[in-house]
Design a protein that fits this description.
This protein is of the alpha/beta class. The chain contains 22 helices and 28 strands. The strands form six sheets. The protein has a seven-stranded mixed beta sheet with strand order 12-11-10-9-8-7-28. It has a seven-stranded mixed beta sheet with strand order 13-14-15-16-17-26-27. Helix 4 (69-79) runs antiparallel to helix 6 and helix 21 (579-588) runs parallel beside helix 22 (603-617). The two termini are 38 Å apart. Bound molecules: zinc ion (ZN). Zinc ion (ZN) binds at residues 240, 242, 327, 350.
Length: 633
């Protein structure tokens, strides 16, 4: 048994010989026991340990005292009321846990967890309940399957993380310092990637791709810089699932990284989906494969999920907490408590400091904070967007107008975020009788991501949660939302002569089914193209938005020219904060930071934001370029 310091200390407080084995699950400590009585009646002792050591501690049964699988499954199915609609039950013998999938997890958990405790007491298995998505999702099914299939590996992997955290300092205590190096997203949007270093820790924060660039020296994070060494990497922290934040992660696994990636559960699922799609796009375009499906699978195997505001050690001197950033489902701001309070660093990643149809605004109160790193996507003085409500009304008017004349509305979307906002907006309009029912075609990946939203409603804002939990009215389940899953179905949508709305990826029209729809719909003036997300320079979306009306596509050597006769609009709406919201966030932020770094914005916007924050808040501001390192402490 691993007899390292913290476990030795804990064992002193437990009855002698009660514990047969101890293991880490990341920063959490799990004890196993063969003593039935101690197992049933250990609550006080374990709670004492949690209070004393401020760590998560769990007691599980040794396999020798657990009920047999078949009998246990039967007991569980009998004990959980039918109303919970239990689906798959998976036993993880390696960890003495049982995963129960249910349509209504609350019912399966019982009041204050009483049903779970009863199952535990009777079967000696430790139950965990997961929500089954209301829209069936093969992807979620596959991810849960991959984790389950590799539970033996996962157990060892999680134990290894614990050892890295608790075995003491590896690199030797030296003078304390904290520094951050920009490997991407310095004065640009795309390829977000930062290396956080302390004398003891090497942590990579995000690892994205600039999809608007074909040039490998511009598209990928600069990992060949002297600061970065993949062998030294202790952990990766992923803020959210957009490709410009996670698109290069599987590459790390391709080149041998086998450490943890910390993120929320929805981020893991959406990232896996977008990464698999990215592999498909690379294959389809005959591009150099920077990674393959197997590397995405390795990524999934190494994710350690965190809830919002769950504090966890990730190395001997860094503690991580994720907070809601209001940007897309599961998107987080990452708070690092470094050197036991020596320095507190908050990376907001992409944040929305305002209510959206789906999410609550970004959190702005933190226990401690010295350095803030904030995005500057809409950081320029003139990047003030009209109120969201006005834009929603404009969207409605435009959709209605197009529908009335029998046209089709095409919306390029990122897959996650605006697509689901638009679905919720349309559902609300139809439900309240403001808009006639027209089919809303939700193409491939957008549909899958919507399904992920139905698996994690606890990450949505209070309004939607109320609709789903109390009224049983899940807006995503409206019958006129239609899934388009294949080229054949896509063709049927295009051949259908009636009015409709089509939501398809990619958001900047660089690849994805939206390009196919566009080619068919562009020449008809009855149709409408509505942009709703950021269009990076060089992307097809950016070109159309800036007036190009003759687009040439290449099929091998044969060019095809498409005339853009459809109406083109842009919604001045975003899942990012506009200039006003950024400044407002700074104003409301507590405690006040001493230093502010700007990233993720065009150069002029980053510089403009840096200078305004400096003037308004009297703090040091910096907008580093790629490859620059800032010493935080
Ligand atoms: Zn994003």
């Amino acid at each position: 048994m691993a007899q390292i310091e913290i476990i030795k200390e804990m064992l002193k407080l437990l009855p002698e010989k009660a514990v047969s084995e101890a293991a880490f699950e990341g920063a959490n400590i799990v004890f196993y026991t063969k003593d039935k009585e101690f197992f049933q009646d250990s609550n006080g002792a374990i709670r004492g340990l949690v209070q004393e050591f401020k760590k998560r501690v769990e007691l599980r049964a040794d396999p020798s005292i657990m009920m047999e699988l078949e009998a246990a499954e039967k007991v569980i199915r009998e004990m959980v009321p039918a109303e919970a609609a239990v689906g798959v039950i998976r036993f993880d013998s390696q960890r003495s846990t049982v995963l129960i999938e249910a349509e209504k997890p609350g019912v399966a958990i019982g009041k204050q967890g009483e049903l779970l405790r009863a199952i535990r007491g009777k079967t000696f298995w430790t139950p965990v309940v997961r929500r089954m998505p209301a829209i069936k999702s093969n992807l979620i099914e596959n991810i849960r399957q991959v984790l389950f299939q590799h539970s033996d590996y996962r157990r060892k992997f999680l134990d290894k993380i614990g050892h890295r955290i608790y075995d003491g300092w590896q690199r030797g205590k030296k003078q304390e310092w904290v520094r951050i190096t920009f490997l991407g997203a310095g004065r640009q949007v795309g390829r977000s990637c930062f290396l956080l270093q302390t004398p003891e820790s090497r942590i990579l924060i995000d690892c994205g791709v600039n999809v608007a660039s074909d040039d490998p020296t511009e598209a990928f994070p600069i990992l060949d810089c002297p600061e970065f060494n993949i062998q030294d990497l202790d952990a990766v922290v992923l803020s959210h699932a957009h490709i410009d934040h996670c698109g290069f992660l599987p590459y790390l696994f391709k080149y041998g990284y086998r450490g943890p990636v910390y993120c929320t559960e929805p981020t893991r699922d959406i990232a896996a989906l977008l990464l698999l799609d990215y592999v498909k796009i690379m294959k389809g375009d005959n591009r150099t494969m920077i990674f393959d499906v197997d590397d995405v699978k390795e990524f999934v195997k190494h994710v350690v999920t965190l809830e919002f505001e769950e504090v966890t050690d990730i190395t001997p001197d860094v503690r991580l907490t994720l907070y809601n950033s209001g940007h897309i489902l599961g998107a987080s701001m990452c708070h690092f408590n470094i050197g036991n309070g020596l320095h507190n660093y908050l990376y907001t990643a992409d944040l929305k400091f305002g209510r959206t149809p789906l999410l609550d605004p970004a959190v702005c109160h933190f226990p401690r904070l010295e350095t803030l790193m904030i995005e500057g996507t809409y950081g320029g003085k003139t990047n003030v967007l009209p109120p969201g409500k006005e834009q929603d009304e404009f969207l409605v008017a435009t959709v209605m107008e197009t529908v009335k004349r029998g046209g089709k509305v095409l919306m390029p979307v990122l897959g996650s975020g605006r697509a689901q906002d638009v679905m919720v907006l349309i559902e609300n309009l139809v439900r309240t009788g403001q808009m006639p029912k027209v089919p809303v075609y939700v193409d491939g990946m957008v549909w899958d991501i919507t399904a992920i939203h139905t698996a994690y409603p606890e990450f949505l804002n209070a309004n939607i949660r109320k609709l789903i939990f109390h009224k049983d009215e899940n807006p995503f389940l409206a019958e006129y939302f239609k899934h388009v899953g294949s080229a054949k179905e896509r063709k049927e949508v295009l051949e259908d002569t009636g009015a409709c709305v089509i939501l398809a990826t990619s958001g900047m029209m660089v690849g994805g089914p939206v390009v196919e729809y566009f080619k068919h719909l562009a020449e008809n003036p009855l149709n409408t193209l509505i942009f709703s997300s950021y269009q990076a320079e060089g992307s097809l979306g950016h070109r159309i938005l800036h007036g190009e009306r003759e687009i040439v596509f290449r099929h091998g050597t044969r060019p095809e020219m498409i005339k853009v006769n459809m109406e083109v609009f842009r919604l001045e709406i975003t899942d990012h904060s506009d200039r006003k919201q950024l400044m407002n966030f700074l104003y409301k932020l507590s405690p006040r930071p001493k230093k502010v770094l700007i990233n993720h914005g065009e150069a002029s916007r980053c510089l403009d934001l840096a200078s305004s924050i400096h003037k308004q808040n009297k703090v040091e501001t910096i907008a580093p370029r790629n490859l620059e390192t800032v010493r935080l402490k």
